[in-house]
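hey all, quick one before standup. I had two proteins in the batch that finished overnight and I want to keep them in one place so we stop losing track of which output belongs to which input. First protein below, input sequence then structure tokens straight from the run.
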Amino acid sequence: MTQAVVASSTIVGVDAIAVEVQVDVSAGLPAFTIVGLGDAAVLEARDRVRAAMRASGYDFPNARVTVNLAPAPVRKHGTGFDLPIALGVLVATGQVPRSAGDAIAVGELALDGGVRPVPGLLAHAIAADRTGRPLLLSANALPTVSAVAGLSARPLTTLSALRQGLPDPGHTALADVNARADGPDLSEVHGQPAAKRALEIAAAGGLGVLFLGPPGAGKTMLARRLPGILPPLTPAEAIESAVVHSVAGLDVEPLLAGERPFRAPHHTASTAGLVGGGSPPRPGEASLAHNGVLFLDEVPEFSPAALQALRQPLEDGYLTLVRAEGRVRYPARFALVAAMNPCPCGFLGDLVRSCTCPPAAVDRYSARIGGPLMDRIDMTLRVDRIDPGSLLRPGQEESSQVVRERVCLARERARERECGAPAAAGAALLRACALDAVARRAVERAARVHRLSGRGVTRLLRVARTIADLGRVDRVSEEHVLEASCYRALS
């Protein structure tokens, strides 16, 4: 009887949990059994491992092979256990050196013995780096894990390469954090100075904004240009966002290059698709937009249940999903940008076309968003159609790069300030605003006129603080409060 133990890990939420792959090869009728609460993909590893070992020139033991994935109470899922199971069998039967089992192994096996990457490799790499052990993985995954600075990555192309023990550490160049892909530019938007100003404030403060107006006014066009005026992701933010995308099986290289995520789900998205869920739980669009932008076009057309599920992440910056099999937490700190028509036909308040909707239909349409969610949106702005002649005349519109420079300066002021508004609240936010008597009266007047809740007053102050930062002013004045209150009128 021979045994071997190989370290691996499984994804729970966006974290990699350590798993021991214990392999026992003993005399008896030939059998290959996997125990330890593995899902269907884990149990199917028996056929992939057997075929990959034979294709790589190894002998699969004609004996009773038992694989235990410990700890047993933790559910395991995915194809990442193919490689550690095969490695355990090879070590137990003496076909590769025992030193090959010293690494944390994660990878899927092809039937020809090739090693493929699996979703969540960045989370596995972070967990391996914490333990100080090398990570054995597919060579194709090296660019993904290159962002984990202290990791010793051991790239493996085929299973046959293990005959000489662990491969040498692999290295690849880290993506340029300052690199930016060419995207939609703000200079392409003609007119709409008030909407552009609101977009700049939202970018500087990480604030949410709702554009309301008739079809074709430019609401979607404006929203899609918000990522271009946001500063690049910091290295820490890039890792946070890339881990979520890695767990979801999406490309992480643009994030590691500093590009902020922009997610624009269709309005038919389910609640699980928007905030996460499923079995096993997977991150939703709100988490995939972490440190970036979540754009909800035609927001009243979304399911009310899906919209109300956004209330926690808008307030706390994370999502907690509780299911029968456990509790997972996903990061979800994003800037919400929403667009909607004022009524079902879209022309309520339009100066060119008349609305044909009865008043009850208008009320039902706007009520689909709900007051609690509207209270969490920092700014609301009406966007009306512009004169067709201005679309045909060349304009001198500011580019995204010019606006982004101002946004970066405003965010730098916020970081340098004690307590770091605009994310602060309560006493910390009041200290950051440093209101004088005139500005304080302006806040009280705006709160009464617009019937703001306590949350609404806090968000009003955050907008005013961001406007002051854009103006390079230390104290929030009456002028800043009045401008901020204009963005609460439609709420």
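OK second protein, same deal, sequence then tokens:
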Amino acid sequence: MIVLDTSALLYWTLDPAQLSLKAIQAIEQAERIVISSISVWEIALKVKRHKLVIPLSIKDYVERLQKLEGLEILAVDVQTWLDNLSLPWEYRDPAGRTIVALATRFGCPLITSDRVIADYYQDTIW
């Protein structure tokens, strides 16, 4: 099992050339790929604020995600919020914190290019 952060999800699904070789290999070898539903929220906000352009509507993008074999979109449940709040880390990005909390909860690797996350969460792949 691996967790993808938001940028890794976007790269994997829309621009795979942006992924590192290690990230590609980890995704190809994973039996289970998990993303947090907060990534959907984060992408939608960036699209709405014109900070991100994707080649389809957010609704169509999510429908495509839901059809990808091996990909699970996990809702942010109460335990994940509690895990987020208990992280001894001064990172203010709510999406990043939630994704790290999810990876921590499952004790699995996290694919991210974010150096701040990688410095905190040691089991990152990039």
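Flagging for whoever picks this up: The CA atoms of residues 47 and 53 lie 6 Å apart. Helices lie at 6-14, 21-29, 37-48, 58-67, 78-86, 94-106, 115-120.
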